[in-house]
Amino acid sequence: MPGTDLKQQLADRFREVNGDHPMTDADDAYVSVQFVVLDELCAARGRDTDEVRRLMLEQRLPLPGYLRSDGAEMVPRDLFSLADEAGGTDGLRTWFTAHWEDPAVGKEEWNSYLSGQYVCLHSVTPATIQRKNHLTTAISSAPNEPDAGSAPWFVRLHALIDELDALEPAFTAYDRLRFNSPTSRDICIDAMRTRFPRSGSADRLLLSIS
Questions:
Q1: What is the pTM of this model?
Q2: In which domain, by residue range, is 167 found?
Q3: Of 26, 51, 187, 210, whose CA is between 20 and 30 Å from 6?
């Protein structure tokens, strides 16, 4: 059946991009809360699922974020929102890449978007991608700032961490396998909060400005 063929092609493409890693019960539970089954989203939006799979294979829409253990293609609930804003999939690439001044960076971000691996954001838009990149860079470089360790520095650092925390979901163990590394949440949120906990004068200053 054509639908079966397209679904298998999409699964093969997904594993080509992400590797072939098993999904645990915990992984399945996580993605079932954070994402929606492609067939269900298409039914709700009046879209033909095979046509959407075709658009994904043609690199005109992003791949699924996950394949659940039962083979379900798990996608974000706002999968079609950027294409809708761009006036359709035909104009999506031009609209998307225009958000970066450097065409090379825009192309790189477009390829990352198509991979479906932007599971690090609750909502994937050019603005949230840019903000996430800014925040992770600022948080990573914060320990090298001249006033590192001061009360104002703690306030700035934790404001950045809190903002990133609001942008990012929790991730799941599968993500660490496919990326072969800790996630940005591991590095820039959890580890930084452990390394530089809110305490002492920083807490008092936070309270005084809240």
A1: 0.89
A2: 120-210
A3: 26
